[in-house]
Specification:
CATH topology of the largest domain: Spore Coat Polysaccharide Biosynthesis Protein SpsA, Chain A
CATH superfamily of the largest domain: Spore Coat Polysaccharide Biosynthesis Protein SpsA, Chain A
Oligomer: single chain
CATH architecture of the largest domain: Alpha-Beta Complex
Radius of gyration: 25 Å
Number of domains: 2
Amino acid sequence: MYRFKSTRTFVIIFVITILWFHNNILHVFRTDHSEQSENTIRANHRLKILDIENALKAGNDGGGGGNGASSAAGSTGNGGGEHGRLGTPAFINLPEASPLTPDEIEEITKEIRLLNAEQKIHNLEKFGPVNENTYVLVIQVHSRVEYLSLLVESLSRMQNIENSLIIFSHDLYLPGLNEAIRNIDFVRIMQIFYPYSIQLNPNRFPGQSPDDCPRDINPTKAKEIKCRNADHPDVHGHYREARYTQTKHHWWWKANFVFGKLDVLHNYTGVIAFLEEDHYVTPDFLWMLNLMETAMMRNLCHGCNLLSLGTYLKTWNIRSSHSRAVVTNWISSKHNMAISFNKTLWEKLRTCAPTFCEYDDYNWDWSLLQVSYTCLKAQLDVLYAKAPRIFHIGDCGVHHKKKTCDPKKAAQAVEKGVKQYSSLLFPDNLTVELRRGKKMRLKKGNGGWGDIRDRQLCMSFVE
């Protein structure tokens, strides 16, 4: 009887295993094959943007969609190859950063100094040198590797990606992540490293010093115990937290480094798009960027000086607004995705460094809004894509505290919309609308930036 039961159990397990194999493994094979075919079709219809002299129609209601992507042309990109693709072990199996020993900190600090000086561009032998017609995208990277892998996947699907330079700016030095990024083969890439990171200063400023005041200690009590920054609480009476201040420091350092220190961009006059690791782009991102930059260059956007490829919407409005862009006053909470500007504007922002660095707000975008309203001669006016070409899929991070995070689900939702409305991408024309909004009232910042050391470090980046 015992032997019979064991045999029957074995048979049941065997049958279940066969059924699972059939429903899952074979399904995966079928899915991979269909996705490969789909990518091949898309790649064969990619068209390099050579001239959009007649592709811009400002102020009119015309404009179809899809012709730019379906023109008869050979493939100009490989769609990304296998390196850096969604779900590859190189990205999703990376170990979390662990505390470094003093010797490791010293070694990595030297390595970062060398890499930032070397400014090596990978894949130049494949795509040629950077020139004035090259698109430049800068991605701020922290630690959310799964989000970054999804962004890289979406970048690999962009038309004309092979005519781009992607600069990854890191505040963590992770050998495994560095290797994964350097294995990306569908675009020119460069890595730069924020040299004042918490990782390299775990027990001292700009990290969190042991004698720093606790965030919520009363300022009076702080002076009694004589903690280091007792005299410098923020506008809300709190003390600095390094994990929050680092983001603003990194953004400001990165912009200064890209515009002022990168040799390859010394004479570059085009716009540079700034993205973050938890963004996700559509295939016609660069197509729209090109249309919008052309509108700005030809002064067809009512004096705008800033571009944004997306805004925050509950529902993607691609059907009604696929070929529309809007000019309005720039608002940090609405127009901070893929913010894009050129060196001319940067030089103006740079002169406002004291305003940016002294404003008591740990957010770079709210600090930039303060610059717009109180320092610049003319406020920032943005031309933004009414139907976003970039999406924020980061439901976990500094400002998001969800218990469960599913970046892949968010990316799949975007891809579903892209496939459903693919005929509306790559519009033939761009209609520019003027819509002045109300000027926001800035009272006091969100805080987190009261420490004089943060302000001094911030100012040092422009010296």
